[in-house]
Design a protein that fits this description.
Mean pLDDT: 93
CATH class: Alpha Beta
Number of domains: 1
CATH superfamily: Ribonuclease H-like superfamily/Ribonuclease H
Radius of gyration: 17 Å
Strand content: 5-15%
Number of helices: 7
Structural class: alpha/beta
Distance between the termini: 21 Å
């Protein structure tokens, strides 16, 4: 999980930020990105792609990463902006904000996905980086837990949609609530909610909590 970091260290970079997001697919709520700089040669064998972790383990690792990291930055883009610029641009904006919100200098970026960011820093995009890089995996955990907590706050404002459980994703329960109550201010109007299909059943033990 640290081969990308080691390669960057070997090339002379010292402050390497892993970047990932959570919340591209929901019908409601923001997209949240995190940038995480870990100490050189940092080890934690439990850190992995957030989708592969139970909610309790994610919460525990969230605390551990915040305790151990050199710096963490967050970027949050709300539904109104998502509807204005589209989800891809909103995701890239959230990632860029996360980098800019780091509290120490950064000299290299490891980004989950296929696209680089519009920032003047050396960087590398890694497909499925959250399963290949400890820095990116750490960012995936921070982004996921941070977004879940935001949706829990929204649940208190709009309990009829049960955001506490579905985190804004298109479950049958959520779609049923939309049909009954209509949409609220945090729904993404550009996502064609009226024609959305419910998420398939997966049998995954953690499926309800592993939406991205």
């Amino acid at each position: 999980m640290d081969s990308f970091e080691k390669d960057a260290y070997h090339r002379g970079y010292k402050f390497i930020a892993g970047i990932d997001e959570a919340g591209r697919g929901p019908l409601a709520g923001p997209v949240v990105a995190a940038a995480v700089i870990l100490p050189m040669n940092y080890k934690n064998d439990e850190i992995n792609d957030s989708k592969k972790l139970s909610p309790k383990r994610r919460e525990r690792l969230y605390d551990a990463i915040y305790s151990d990291a050199i710096a963490i930055g967050l970027g949050v883009v709300e539904p109104l902006i998502i509807d204005t610029v589209n989800i891809l641009q909103a995701t890239l904006t959230a990632m860029q904000e996360a980098v800019l919100n780091l509290t120490c200098p950064v000299d290299y970026l490891l980004i989950d996905g296929k696209r680089q960011l519009s920032v003047s820093l050396p960087q590398e995009a890694i497909v499925k980086g959250d399963a290949k890089s400890i820095s990116v995996a750490s960012a995936s955990i921070i982004a996921k837990v941070s977004r879940d907590r935001i949706m829990e706050i929204y649940h208190r404002q709009f309990p009829q949609y049960n955001f506490l459980k579905n985190k804004g994703y298109g479950t049958e329960e959520h779609l049923s609530a939309i049909r009954k109550y209509g949409v609220c201010k945090i729904h993404r109007k550009s996502f064609k909610i009226a024609t959305a299909s419910p998420l398939p059943e997966t049998g995954d033990l953690f499926a309800e909590n592993n939406f991205r």
